[in-house]
Amino acid sequence: MNALRSALPRILPALRSNVPVGLTLAVITLPQAIAFSTTLAGLPPHFGIYAAIWGVLFTALLNPSRVFSGGPNTAMSAAIGVILLPTAPPFGTDYIGYALTLILLAGLIQMLFVLIRPLGRMLDLINEPIINGLICGIGLFLIFKSLTVFAGLPINTQSEWALWIAWQSFLAALEIGNLYAIQIGMITLITSLAVRQIDALRNWAILIGVAAGTAYSAYLNATIGLQNTMVEQIANLAAIKIVYPSLPVFNQEAMSDIVSILPGAVTLALLGLFQTVAAMRRMNRKIGVFTDSRKGIFADAVSNCMLPFLSSLPTCASFNRMWLVYNLGGHSRLASAISAMILLLIVLFLGDAIAIIPMPAMAAVIMLLGANMINWEDIKPHLKDRREAVVFAASFLSVLFLDLFGAVVVGSVLAIAYSKWEQAHPNISLSGNVLKVRGNIYYGSLPVIEANYHSAIEREGSVIVDISDCYYIDPEGIRWLAAAKASQNVAFTDRRKTQSRRELERRASAETKRVSGRRRRKPDRRQRSEF
Amino acid sequence: MKLLKLLASLLVFSGLYWLAVQKHAERDQLRLASVYLTPNCKEKLARYDLTPAEYYRSPYVQKMTGTESTGRGYRAEDVRAIQRGCNIVDDLQGNLARDGPRERWHANRFVRGTQTKCAHCHQSAGDKQDAAGNRLVGSNNLGASWVMADMYDRFTGMLLPNELRQMQCYINSSNGFKPNAADDVIRDVTAYSRFLAAALDMKIGKRYPEQGMDEIPASATLRRGDDYVRGAHVYRQKCASCHGAQGFGTVVDGRAIYPALAGPDAFSLDSRMNFAKVNTVMPGFICRNMPPQQEGSLDNQQCRDIAYYLSTLPRPAGDLQGPLVAAWQQMMMTVMPPLTRYAESIGGNVAPPASH
Q1: Do A153 and B182 touch (CB under 8 A)?
Q2: Measured between beta carbons, which residues in chain B are less than 8 angstroms from residue A159?
Q3: What is the CATH number of domain B218-345?
Q4: Measured between alpha carbons, how far is A105 from A55 in angstroms, rounded to an integer?
Q5: Record: contact B17-A182, CB cut-off 8 A
Q6: How far A334 CA sits from the closest chain B CA (Å)?
Q7: Which CATH superfamily is domain B38-199 in?
Q8: pLDDT tens, position by position, B77-101
């Protein structure tokens, strides 16, 4: 008691500064969380809400970063819906069981990235154009996907390519869509867009939009009647308690289906980790601190292993929410924890108000978020560099033309290719008979070096290979160097060792001196220490 | 600037809403309009005495069994829906309509190519009978299909509503897109199928032999094994005169007189018609429904051979196979026909060994 009394003066100011931040965060997350679970993942609304409570709380407690904020995520929720559609009808018991299994599997796969250090380090190879390409593609996909719910039409089951059906969904919305549903959705959209222009209310825009849509839907229910408007509402909030335990399905009957969703689990795990790592990296650079992304991977993995037992969607970091918390002045993990608690209170006491939110309003929320994911300011820098543009375009198109699993695989391959491409092309110049290699000597760059080396030998007869500016030589490179040294007409020089410089100067002809002489600056130590 | 952006989006949204209202009005008007029937449907629906009335008594049941069957009658709007449904089944592309595909709820949007129609498999507008009026075994009767709605699907084990089954037709058999389950295209065909069930006095939940295809498994043959060379030979004798040497069908004035069995206008790899997917369905269809007017003239082994041969011909990939397979199939559909033609011109067309 005494300890508490003495701690109180320290805690109170922290609470006072973090409660408004937590409230804003809760208000932003709530409509998104419901929309994610109902329109994207095909799960009852409490899944999203619990993700916004427990997911946020766990990730805040497990990650030491002061601004880290987890929670339900669009791409991951959409992935759940796409992966599970072929296995069972959405919202059913089988479907929910498989969803929990899928999330647990994804959590376990993420755990591998924590336990196997190099695997986690590989995630750092995912660069910005790849992530932005994925995000833009998924944003576009979300807009198309929510069209049917927006128009109050039954969602199509069975898997298919998103782009193919987009135009048909649009025509269906125009021709046979429920006009009341479209009205509600449009009111939500327009209200949110209008409110967003007012800076003071910017963070509340989506909530106000949903409130407007709900109010209009309530008005329609009162005047025309729900049996005539036939607009679907969220309604089922019976499961909302403080904790709602659940168990993933692992029985023999389900095994064939579980095996078939394994690639989906990999997709889900990677989608989460890609975003967490990218968000943390971007956040670190924005606010000028460094938190190891491994901490984020750890928080994600542990949370996603626990969340399926609390009937919740998976979690990953969100840059937008982290940026918001930082800008609002939330400088500790307390803000996220408080937001989780506030959300729990809201949901416990305002369940009836949430139950009458119409589904088209939720679809409108998804459309807004999808549109926000396509951010021209993020794309523009990638179009300036040709290589980045190619990577961005490939990653963007792979979401639209392959499935999400294909997109994640393409993204991973691109990441490795991109990071290796530069290293595989060392800068090689021949002046006189000195072949100067700047860059790496490893299995990937050897073909380039060998090609130049052999043509130089053919032309000059004997060659001096200058490897002073090579900062990395792998075992295969060493073997090649040894084999090359065995031949008579080749000499090596490595001017990082002073002894060999004399030797070089004795051997070198007059013209080579000009190039490799005193004017060369010293080997850059900074650069070397980096690798 | 902010205000301008907001105004622009407001304009776009209201424009879209206005468009939606227009399209809805157009549909409502079409629903109320009287239906111009195709010749087949006119004859069939008149024979089944489809008129708005309080009770419905089927002349077919009267004729075949001599008993009266009385059911609830149809309102004028039900009759129109049934008529439109029959039209869609008989003439999906809208070739026989006064106003083109619009009268078929643009059903041609949901199939790829300009040839596919329901009646290719569901012959005689989904209700094939012999001269005496007996329904034929394995003739894909739509009424018999309706009474099996909401049963567990044989292939996937999932509960399969009639609407979903129709969507599968669109994706698989016509390589197309799924109409929305609430679309009039689906609703009218359901109404028509339901009417057929009433007219033929079929009972809900009962399995009739004319429903779907009468499958022919390998166990129904002498187990000589399937052979596509033998199949190709029989195909040339019995099928090629209508379906063409390479199975591309017969097209006159852009209308398919005989449907394609291969190439871009044929059913896809995902279709259950594809022998490689389910190796009993296609033989069943051939044995029970082909050649027209000589149904049952082929024996079981011949049907399996022909089906096997057809599955070796190039055809579109299904949606489930993804873009790589689709690209591959597209290439095969482009490259194979000229190659085959060339091979046959230099002395292909060899008769198979007389016996095995």
Answers
A1: yes
A2: 319-320
A3: 1.10.760.10
A4: 16
A5: yes
A6: 35
A7: Cytochrome c-like domain (1.10.760.10)
A8: 999 999 999 999 999 988 888 888 8
